[in-house]
Sequence to fold (278 residues):
Amino acid sequence: MKILIADDSRVMRQIVTRTLRQAGFGDHDLVEAADGQQAFDNAVAEKPDLVISDWNMPEMTGIEVLRKLRAAGNDVKFGFVTSECTPEMQQAAEAAGSAFFIVKPFTAERFDEVFSPILG
Amino acid sequence: MSEPVVTEGDLAEMAEQVWVSYLDPEGISPLVPHGDVKQLSEVHSTVSITGSWHGHLVFASSQNAARKAAAAFLAMEPDEVAQEDISDVLGELANIVGGNVKAMLPAGCFLSLPTVVLAPDTASYYPAAERISGLYGIWDGEPVSISMWQSVKAEASA
Fold:
């Protein structure tokens, strides 16, 4: 499977990558995006099977990326890895079609719990 | 004075999560608070909160602590870390704690992207804001602090 990791922090993209590996999902193709616009563009161009996105990014927020993808008829599995975790954000994410919500800081165990049903 | 919306104890809990997850996963060098608010820093990062609550979350440390944090985040040796990585990690530390702080504030708050300043936290001045709580301590021999600043005007109108 192909996974798109969108986060404006290069270090956080590396940590997501490393945590995926630690959780046993190291064999998938990984592509990255460094802001919301790139996330949208790569979600369209790279046709990933899964998008793991930060919420607060330059150009477009993660929720805006998700809404724009859905508005364009793109049904890619999409969820958030974010430091922000208010109930209204989780509700907004779910309403927009988000499949998961992981709060930073996160552990490999949390990744395993969330991604096992998705990545197998 | 009533208890601040985010206390030193709350900041300590959030810091502990960050340390356990990224900076000290083996539990051998935790952040040890000492409460010295005059502790000197060399670098800092800030996220601002607006909306139903106005203020700032500031992460400050020595240059060495920031380098060690970047090394821990990246699973590298401290001398392999680039300046760009240090700035990135400083911003991410403020972002992670700021995001968790936001969950404790009234609904309807917005978090800014982080600002990183490679100078002491006294180099940034927050007009009309005052510190409401702070966690000051030593990590692996290096100074680290996390402080909350609230807009005085917002507090007065609350």
Notes: Helices of chain B lie at 8-23, 63-74, 83-102, 152-157. The first helix of chain B runs from residue 8 to 23. Chain B touches chain A through 28 residues (CB under 8 Å). The two ends of chain B are 14 Å apart (CA to CA).
